[in-house]
Amino acid sequence: MNPEDKVLLERTLKISEENNKLLRSMRSTARWAVLWGIIKIIILIVPFVIAYFYLEPQFGSISDSFRQAQGVLNTFK
Q1: Does the model's pTM come out above 0.70?
Q2: How far apart, in whole angstroms, are the C-alpha atoms of residue 70 and residue 58?
Q3: Which letter, b or e, does each residue of 13-48 get, where b requires 16 or more Cβ atoms within 10 Å of its Cβ?
Q4: Using CA atoms, how far apart are residues 56 and 51, in angstroms rounded to an integer?
Q5: What is Dmax (Cα atoms) for the chain?
Q6: Tens digit of each residue's pLDDT (9 = 90 or more) over 13-27
Q7: What is the pLDDT of residue 77?
Q8: pLDDT for residue 75
Q9: Consecutive H or E run containing 4
Q10: Average pLDDT in the 38-61 region?
Q11: How many CB atoms lie within 10 A of CB 68?
Q12: What is the rounded CA–CA span in Å between residue 52 and residue 59?
């Protein structure tokens, strides 16, 4: 192996190691982005689900009251 080839191989090795480091960093960043995306979705959806289960009985009683009021108003017609 001549010296030029050796220098070229060492340079190629150095560049490939840098590329590997960058790719690992990109993969790690992508994983964190997915994780934070899931956390954001959970933060947005969970309060709506809790509010629905908490407020559903109240909506039922409100709609019953509204129906009774409609029935009373219909009796006056």
Answers
A1: no
A2: 18
A3: eeeeeeeeeeeeeeeeeeeeeeeeeeeeeeeeeeee
A4: 8
A5: 107
A6: 999 999 999 999 999
A7: 65
A8: 79
A9: helix 3-76
A10: 87
A11: 10
A12: 10
